[in-house]
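Quick start: what a row looks like.
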Amino acid sequence: MVKKILLGLAALLVVAQFIRPAKNISTTPPDKDDFIVSLAPPAEIKTMLQVACYDCHSDNTRYPWYAELQPGGWWLKQHIDDGKNEFNFSVFGGYSAKKKAKKLSALVDVIGDRSMPLKSYTWIHRDAIFTDAQIKTLTTWLEAQGEKLADEK
C-alpha cells in the first residue's frame, strides 16, 4: 500500500514537471514608466532596487535554478503575481502623482521595517540583505522623491 502511494506521488511529481507557468520576462527594454527610468536614481539606489525588488515587483524576473522544478516554479509565479499586484516598478511612471507618493511612502515603510524583501527571497538572494546604512540611504532617497511629488501636486 505504501509502495503504491509513493509510486503515485512520484508519478504526479514527474507529470508536474510538464505543467510550467509562464515566465515574467519582458521582451522590451524598460520604458519611461519604469521606476528607474522615470526617477533616475543614483547608481547605488538603482542597484539596490534591482537586486532586492525588481525580481518580484517588475515585468522582468531573474529566475533561480529551482524555478525549473515544479512546484517551485508555481510557488515563484504566485509570489511574483502577488508582488506585482502590490507594486510594479515597471508601471510606476504611469501612476498619478498622488498614487506615486503613496507607493513611495509604502516602500519606505516596508523597507524600513525589513518586511521586504521577504525572508524566503533573501535565503537564496543573499545580496538582497541590506545593512542598516544601506536601508537608511535607500529610504532617505525614497522619502525625498515622495516630497518632490508632494510639491508637484
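That is the whole record. The mean pLDDT is 89. Residues 2-152 form one domain.
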